[in-house]
C-alpha cells in the first residue's frame, strides 16, 4: 500500500467532508481498496491519524540534510531547519491538516490525540538535532519546542501554500525565545552526549 497516496487521500477527504463525517469506508472507496484491508492496518480513524503523524516524522528524518549535526551549526539553527522541513513535508496535506486544527480546538479527544502526536514529534525533532530528551530536563525541552511548533502552525495555516516567510520568521523568533528561556533555566541545548 502506497502510504503517501493513502494519506493524501485521507487529508483530501478530511478537507472535503470534515473530520466528523470522514470514515474508513469513504477512504477505502477513494483509494479503490477493500475497507477490510484498512481495518487490518488501522484500528479506527484515530489510529489512521496516528499513523499519518508517524509517517510525517519518518519523512522529515529522510529529508534532513546529512550535515545537520555539523558542529558549526548551532542547536537553534538545526531546530529551525528541522521545523522548516516539517512544514515542507506537511505542505501537500495542508488543507486537511488545517481542517484538523479547527477540530482539535473543540474536541477533547482529538486534543489528547494531537498532544500525544506533537510530543512524539518534538522528541524526534530534538533528538535529530542532537539534543538529549532524557528526564525532567528533556521533558521541559519537548514542551518548549512543542510551543514553538504550535506558534509556527498557527501562522502556517494562514499563509499561501508556496510562501512560508511569516512562518519562518515566527519560528526563528520563538526559537530564540525558547533558547533564552532554556539558558535562564540552565538547560543548555548541547548535544545528547554532553547534555546534563
Please characterize this protein's 3D structure:
By secondary structure, the protein is mainly α. The chain has one domain (45-184): Tetracycline Repressor, domain 2. It is built from nine helices and no strands. It has helices at 3-17, 24-31, 35-41, 45-63, 75-90, 94-104, 108-128, 135-156, 165-184. Helix 1 (3-17) crosses helix 2, helix 1 crosses helix 6 and helix 4 runs parallel beside helix 7 (108-128). The longest helix has 22 residues, at 135-156. The radius of gyration is 18 Å and the shape is elongated. Mean pLDDT is 91; it is low at 190-196.
Q: What is the multimeric organization of the chains shown? A: single chain
Instruction: Give the C-alpha Rg.
Output: 18 Å
What is the CATH class?
A: Mainly Alpha
Q: Let me know the largest β-sheet.
A: none
Count helical runs. Answer: 9
β-strand number: 0
CATH architecture: Orthogonal Bundle
Strand content: under 5%
Mean pLDDT level? 91
The SSE string, one letter per element, is HHHHHHHHH
What is the name of the CATH topology?
A: Tetracycline Repressor, domain 2
- Total tally of structural domains: 1
Shape: elongated
Q: Give the low-confidence spans.
A: 190-196
In terms of structural class, how would the helical and strand content be classed?
mainly alpha
The portion of residues assigned to helices is over 70%
